[in-house]
Amino acid sequence: MRLHAVSDIHLGYQANREAIHDIEARPDDWLILAGDVGETERHMHLAFDALQPKFRQLVWVPGNHELWAVTGRDGEPGERPLRGEARYRRFVDLCRARGVLTPEDPYPVVDLDGTRVRIVPMFLLYDYSFRPADVPAEAALSWAREDGVRCADEQFLPPDPHETRADWCRARCEATQARLDAVSDDLPSVLVNHWPLIEELARPPRIPRFSLWCGTRRTADWHRRYNARVVVSGHLHMPSTRIVDDVVFEEVSFGYPKQWRGRREPDAALRQIRI
């Protein structure tokens, strides 16, 4: 089998809903969906309806868009949306009903390129720590606004029942770290998270202060600590391959229609993950 990954397919856009049907079938392979499939359960079902028949196994991790508490946006008008943890758990249940692996499932071990590898889907969020040392946490949002940078998460992504998204991030990191620390072998890993794991890869050149919403310093050494061969992420809409500490970091975003139309075919957005 081969392993492929793509993120940020944003099925709230009609052009993207059409584009995913142009992804070629790879019936022996696995596909990672690294977050921002869309905002609603309908978007998730659209993705699975189109992609499950083409791949042996799908693996999903949430992005910020799945966690948005929105109504009437390609969903069921007037329905009060679930918030925070409850919303995330609803999406996990949806995935499990469809046979899609999630961060809440046992980490699968597969054979890639003749090597046994553990795939580690994660949900870690962000905590505003990707900021200069002289900017205190309480001033982080003001620091971003000084440069005209805002994130819709501040309006649409409630952290219930946690007091803040930073608190939710801490809880997710601690729980995931405990699971990884309990692994008793030295198998190489493919770490998957919607947000970048290290700060140096989380600075969009045109809006560098957007880094606030791009990860946490808690994961700065995870690629070394957990024997990663590859780290997969999205969120930035900046597809790239980078190498840090001899580990390959793959940013696998598909993006909004204006970002891919006329630049690449939808199937070319899939990145093969090589060990």
Structure description:
This protein has helices spanning 14-19, 41-51, 84-98, 140-145, 153-156, 165-181, 222-225, 257-260; strands spanning 3-6, 26-33, 55-60, 109-112, 115-121, 189-192, 228-233, 240-244, 247-251, 271-273. It is α/β, with parallel strands linked by helices. The strands form two sheets. A six-stranded mixed beta sheet has the order 4-5-6-7-9-8. Strands 3-2-1-10 form a four-stranded mixed beta sheet, with no helix packed on it. It has a single domain, classed as Metallo-dependent phosphatases (Purple Acid Phosphatase, chain A, domain 2, 4-Layer Sandwich), CATH 3.60.21.
Give structural attributes.
275 residues, Purple Acid Phosphatase, chain A, domain 2, four-stranded mixed beta sheet
